[in-house]
Known about the structure:
Blueprint: E1 20-27, E2 33-44, E3 47-53, E4 59-67, E5 70-74, E6 81-85, E7 91-95, E8 100-106
Amino acid sequence: TPVAPPADPGSVPAPSIAPGTYSVQGRGTDGRPYAGTVRIESRGNDVYGFQWILGPRNVYYGVGRVSGSMLTVNFGASDPAIYQIAQDGSLSGTWARGKAQEQIRPR
């Protein structure tokens, strides 16, 4: 019986984003911390819809596209949010040209 060659230890599957509800923590351009919930939905072809809920009157929407292990989300600001996708599906990124930071983690 033929035996398959061992997997290349250097080949790691590309990280992916699972639709669902995530926790978000960040620091805005003013340096103040914020926290809340992000809902992510798949729209197909590596495109995702985002809804940030940071309080009863602070709800934001965006659309993002995955390219490799990077995610770029346009949410109405002049510059997009740019995230690195980790193997566990969490997102670590910046917005406002790197002046603000954000961590999005699966619940």
